[in-house]
């Protein structure tokens, strides 16, 4: 199956002009996607946030977005200017761009699986996962993503239908969600064992890793539910485009698939960076620095009531909010410390 717009059929049924308007929208969305990628990576470089395997995998996936966007923009411009490289199946430029484009699509559609595999590694090696800096895990998972994506793109051209690819993608997404639930239950069991065991069986490093795994499980649930629409819609549109239906509807499904995936390349990073505290802090700092140039310099004489500094709202490992009285907590802490170090005088 060739997942590409049929220029000849669109010209024969006089629908090419309407699709050209859709191509302009696709081009604009992909330009925004490229600019958004540059902004995100620039802030990532500023904060130096590439130290964990989760972030390495994220960058492995994310780099495919601007590459795919550049290829898609080139294809659509070639169609708009009636250049054979954008639509002629026998053209070598078309074949190269098409296979490169499909190879960049699949890693984004199987990203959930990559994150779940990494978290299972973190659970299995909880004793010293981050301490030993196992960077090779993130690299291997990234290479695996590219390998699977390339094989899916290659096999897509061999079959007349994308039914098998659609089933594979949907089952993989469902399995990833089930794997996240299993990983959460395993780490919750470990955490309960930590809290009941006071003999020092679990080190501080291991306790931190277990807590981090639980936090990521909550993030994964929010992340997967946020992109659920796209991970279902894109494979179904790909399947519809391979059915034996009139070419107008096949072209429509292909165009909607390209537009949906283009929006997906913007929406998914937005969700990931939304929960990245350091990234958000740096982004707000840059925005504040930029907008301060346009603010009028004036003295604000209004007074606002000061917040009560005696109470702090924190969340425990499971995300439940805890209201802590600082003074009371400090007194309790020092009382416990005094009891622990209560050495009788000589």
Give a written overview of the molecule.
- The protein has helices spanning about 5-10, 15-45, 55-60, 65-80, 90-110, 110-125, 135-155, 165-195, 205-240, 245-275, 275-290, 325-340, and strands at about 310-315, 320-325.
- With about 350 residues, the protein is mostly helical.
- It has two domains: about 5-285, Rhodopsin 7-helix transmembrane proteins (Rhopdopsin 7-helix transmembrane proteins); about 315-340, no CATH class.
- Strands 1-2 form a two-stranded antiparallel ribbon.
- It starts with 6 loop residues before the first helix and ends in a 6-residue tail after the last helix.
CATH topology of the largest domain: Rhopdopsin 7-helix transmembrane proteins
Judged by helices, strands and strand pairing, the structural class is mainly alpha
Question: Total number of helical segments?
Answer: 12
Q: Within the largest sheet, what's the order of strands?
A: 1-2
Assigned CATH superfamily of the largest domain: Rhodopsin 7-helix transmembrane proteins
Q: Strand tally, please?
A: 2
Give the domain tally: 2
What is the CATH C level class of the largest domain, in words? Mainly Alpha
Q: What distinguishing features does this structure have?
A:
single chain, about 350 residues, mainly alpha, Rhopdopsin 7-helix transmembrane proteins, 2 domains, two-stranded antiparallel sheet, 12 helices, 2 strands, globular, 7TM_GPCR_serpentine_rcpt_Sre, transmembrane, membrane
Q: What is this structure's SSE topology?
A:
Blueprint (H helix, E strand, L loop, with lengths): L6 H6 L3 H32 L5 H10 L1 H17 L11 H18 L1 H14 L10 H22 L6 H34 L7 H38 L5 H28 L2 H15 L19 E5 L5 E5 H15 L6
